[in-house]
Amino acid sequence: MTGEAKQPANTTVKKETLYLVASVCLIIGFLGGIVFSVFKSPTAMTRSASAPQEGEQVRLTPEQTTAMLNLEREVAANPNNGEAWTQLGHLYFDSDQPQKAINAYTHSLAINPNNADVLTDLGVMYRNNDEPQKAIASFDKAIALNPKHEAARFNKGVVLLYDLKDKAGAIKSWEELVAINPQAAGPNGQSVKEILAEVKGRNKK
User: Fold this and answer.
1) Which distant-in-sequence residues (6+ apart) come within 8 Å of 90 by Cβ?
2) Would you say 157 and 186 are in contact if contact means Cβ atoms under 8 Å apart?
3) N or C: lower Cβ tally within 10 Å for the chain?
């Protein structure tokens, strides 16, 4: 993905296709000892994507602060730089600023609409902004672009189960994920098959 202007230096590391080794971004609920977490889209192993817990103060590193200021200047000067909007969105994501992240990702997608990773991150930010229906719509767009996008399918199941109380929909989303990758696992290492068994078992009670 390439913007029209030169990317400023010292921004966040470009994300890579490493979904199952991605850091956990956002703890959003519990069910019988299973920790359900929303995954960030594929990310570099070298950078932490952990979002702060509720009530925890967000503190940016000096490098992050500098990168954010540089990127804000870049998109103001060159609003068609899609990559700069994406990287700015990642910094807002990491610093728990969902509304700003939504704005940045929306600008990125207006320039490069077919990026399933950005759509997945946008969905997570919609969820963190108390907009679960928009989160599902964003995950669905990511899945339509890339039917094998595991993060989007896992996240969709989490939002359906925890935010929308739609267990049947969550089960369907995770069954589709297991059909794509039988070894798929949640962020705590528990297999999606085991999560499904737990959820289905509770449905029978």
Assistant:
1) 12, 15, 101, 121
2) no
3) C
5 in any annotated domain: no
Residue 127's nearest CA partner among 198, 37, 200 is 37
Residue 41 is predicted with a pLDDT of 55
Contact at 8 Å (CB) between 141 and 109? no
Q: Determine the residue type at 56.
A: E
CATH number, domain with residue 50: 1.25.40.10
Question: 80-102 b/e with 16+ CB inside 10 Å = b?
Answer: ebbbbbbbbbbbbbbbbbbebbb
For residue 90, what are the domain limits?
Answer: 19-204
Q: What pTM, to 2 d.p., does this model score?
A: 0.76
Q: Tell me which residues of the chain have a pLDDT lower than 50.
A: 1-36, 43-55
Distance of alpha carbon 144 from alpha carbon 115, whole angstroms: 11
Q: What is the DSSP string of 131-152?
A: -HHHHHHHHHHHHHH-TT-HHH
Q: Which tens digit of pLDDT belongs to each residue from 89-132? A: 999 999 999 999 999 999 999 999 999 999 999 999 999 999 99
Count of helix runs (H) and strand runs (E) in the chain = 8, 2
pLDDT of residue 183: 94
The whole-number pLDDT of residue 190 equals: 84
